[in-house]
Amino acid sequence: MKALPSRAQVVIIGGGIVGASVAYHLAELGWTDVVVLEQGQLSCGTTWHAAGLVGQLRSTESMTRLIQYSTDLYARLEAETGFGTGWKQCGSVSVARTAERMTQLRRTAAQARNYGVTAEIITPTQAQELWPVMRVDDVVGGVWLPGDGKANPSDLTQALARGAQRRGVQVVERVRVTGVTVKDGVVKSVSTSEGEIETDYVVNCAGQWAKEIGRMAGVTVPLHSAEHFYVVTEQIEGVRPDLPVLRDPDGYAYFKEEVGGLVVGGFEPDAKPWGMDGIPYPFEFQLLEEDWDQFSIIMENAIHRVPALETTGVRMFYNGPESFTPDNMFLLGAAPEVRGFFVGAGFNSAGIASAGGAGRALAEWIVNGAPTSDLWPADLRRFARWADNDTWLRDRVTETLGLHYAMSWPNKELETARPLRRSPVHHLLAAAGACFGSKMGWERANYFGTAAPYTFARPEWQPQVNAEIHACRTQAALFDQTSFGKFTLKGRDAAAALQWLCTADVDVEVGRVVYTGLLNDRGGYESDLTVTRVAHDEYLIVTGSAQSTRDFDVISKGLGEHHAVLVDVTGTYAVFSVMGPKSREILQSVSKADFSAFAVGTSRLVDLGYATVRATRMTYVGELGWELYVPSEFAVTVYETLLTTGLTQAGYYAIEAMRIEKGYRAWGRELGPEVTPAAAGLRFACKKTGGYRGADRAMDDQGRHVVSIVLDDPEAHLWGGESLLRDGEPVGYVTSAAYSPTLGASVALGFVSDATMEKAQVDVAGEMYSAQISRKAPYDPTSSRVKA
Predict the structure, then answer these.
(1) Quick one: average pLDDT of 455-471?
(2) What are the CA-CA distances from residue 577 to residues 242, 274, 440, 479, 480 (Å)?
């Protein structure tokens, strides 16, 4: 064993492919005072038994780009390091057994076009030509991605580690981490079985052990292990070395050539959690016991797809546990709880494909002090402390493993480990017939009425949502938006701190509400939110539920030396929104306050029935309306008072459709770390004098523009992700979409490369529909209804 250094600038915990990739890329960026600690041998945890599939296409552009980089890296790594990687660009074929699955694959192909990935829709006959040993009598079609491939995980790890070591990185095996010392919220050192290492940065790439390592430092790393299976067969006639990877998601199975035989694995819909009492130590190059009962659903479907398997022997059964996260996306980035602590873990059986790009992204984040691309889908900060619960994680992982091959239905909700976080009026929503969804652990009413099945067509719940929208547009509707993230910033420097962080001028009089962006140094959106000045030295900050952990981290770190304290008060207040042209008179009927005296963008305390609440004239649906911030202990009383007025209760599907009709942007859809205010069409929310973070780049539109889109055909239905084309060439894509009963057609927001476009074709699962393109909102573009 190499001697353990007493100090290193960076300590990477975990010598799997992700840890090796981070080390390689740190060294490539010139940071070589790095030590990698592995409790066993390199790749001995999860990496060694990974199947090694590398599929490029992911649900977002940024994640697809990340894996595209992985494929480029793996293709050149052997020449650079002299170590074989087993990389082979053999392509992949995915087949569909049902019309619904084929619709999903057609949507996948359209997304591939958006992201520059070659994808071809193929017939059953073409699929069999690419993969001769399968049966296709029940196949309705497929998709061919020639850029996909496979690699040898252990060899890749060794090659990355060798590349890092050649630049000066130390790799120390047989050293177990026993603790992480944190002082004043900053990483100081790592304790090991061989002594202490002082350090400035800890990078937790410990795989299944990452949750335990995180807890040593007080960092939430929400993942849980599950048993994961595949078999390696004897040789099969017709299986050749250049055979593509085959995926049969309707049968939960994948197939990869291996020495003339097949690796047959998959993702069963009901997984088997493992390691509830912690991962044993040592656990090197180990497998769990065979479980043919658990594997049977995969094997039966595999035999159906490849009949030769029925008479082919099995050389090896692999039951190798892997870690899975609550939403099937890996965990990457800086921990919000501790400065200098980074995480790259929870790769959900996709670590080989992701490791190259994820390692580079994390290394760049460490070196530059901020991400250099949009990593929100994988950002560790999409979860909060509540997610670090073993019982909740165990129950959720039974579902997330199977998401790999589950149908990617629009608006699909996870079902396990619910309910968790509930509004004080959850029982009243349930009694009214709410169909709930979940966001950041919160149960939220999607709509009211009969539950309906998932579909790619216009859903059965659409009439119910149409009625909610009609009530809001013609009378008024009541929304429970308690899941908003809510913070207070208080202190003598609160205004000065926010003036630097916020694009808009927030040094306003008490009682004013300001819509603003938070930008990064590249001029891209870290968030958009509202800021209400409630006292000369205090602000109420309200943001979306999904990014509340992230926003708290961005703001708190951005305070610098300013004298101000940020406090999360999300659970302290319920939020009820009363929106619609009749909202003023309805609220007036239960309050002595003068609602006619409220200007747009003002906020003050008012009586409402027996309670005192904060009423803020602000809207996300494009109508006259108020958000009511209610102390949680008064929430039920206030909600019951509002119901006495006859208000229609409405849910988040209605909010989504109305905000798209009005052209309001949403963070994570139209706004993100690589989207500037100029590109988003939000120059109006920026101080003309500058003086805010990212101002020097905020007015660069980057050659893309957010626009509103309305389909000409009233029967076609958009969901988001569709490709926009002009003369057959991609010119943009849809980011958000819904059916608009107000306009009588599907309405959407999206990006285009040409700001002067007025028309485009929209690829809806392979069918082309014409659409009108505008930079103005299709509903109330002058905001006369908001100003009423």
Answers:
(1) 98
(2) 59, 43, 20, 5, 6
